Amino acid sequence: MDKKLLIAGVIMLFIISACTSGTGKETPEKENFAGKTSESAVTIDLEPHQFENGVLEIDISLNTHTIDMSGFDLKKQVKLVIGEDEYYPVSAPSLGGHHNSGTLRFEIPEEPGEHMIIITGIPDVEERIFKWEAN
User: Of the N and C termini of the chain, which has fewer Cβ atoms inside 10 Å?
Assistant: First the structure.
C-alpha cells in the first residue's frame, strides 16, 4: 500500500512540474502563435517560437520518405506576409536527406498579429499557406 502511495506521489509531482515549467523566453500560447502543419509527400510543421529584438523565430520541420530535400533553399522558398509587407528569412536551416528541422528567422519591425507564411515549390503542393489570426 505504501509503495502505491509513493508512486502516486511521484506521478503527481511530475505532472505539477510539467505544467508549471517554462523558460520565460518563449512566445505565450495564443491563437496567432499556435503551431501549424501541412501534410503531403513532405510534411511541414511550423511552430512560432518567439519574437525578440525585431526578430521573429519560427521552428520548422520537414519530413518525407520519398524526396531528397537537399535541392531546396528555404531562404528563397519561404516568405512571411504581414498585411501588404513581405519578408524573407534572414536565416533558415539547410536541407538534406529526408528529415530536417531548424529555425526560420525574420527581421520585422514589430510583433505580428495576423500574418501568414507561404512556402512554395516543396513537393507535391506547389504553394502552402499557413495563417495565424490576430487575437
Answer: N
The Cα-based distances of 132 to 10, 41, 66, 78, 84 in angstroms read: 38, 23, 29, 15, 15
Give, for all 135 residues of the chain, the pLDDT tens digit: 566 655 655 455 445 444 433 333 333 334 444 577 777 889 999 999 899 999 999 999 999 989 889 999 999 999 999 999 999 999 999 999 899 999 999 999 999 999 999 999 998 889 999 999 876
pTM over 0.90: no
Cα–Cα distance between 131 and 92 in angstroms, integer?
Answer: 19
Query: Where would I find the H helices in 21-125?
Result: 74-77
Q: Which grid coordinates are listed for 94?
A: 539547410
- For 86, the domain range is 31-132
Number of domains in the chain: 1
Question: Domain containing 62 — which CATH number?
Answer: 2.60.40
What does the block give as the cell for 123? 513537393
Residue 18 domain flag: no
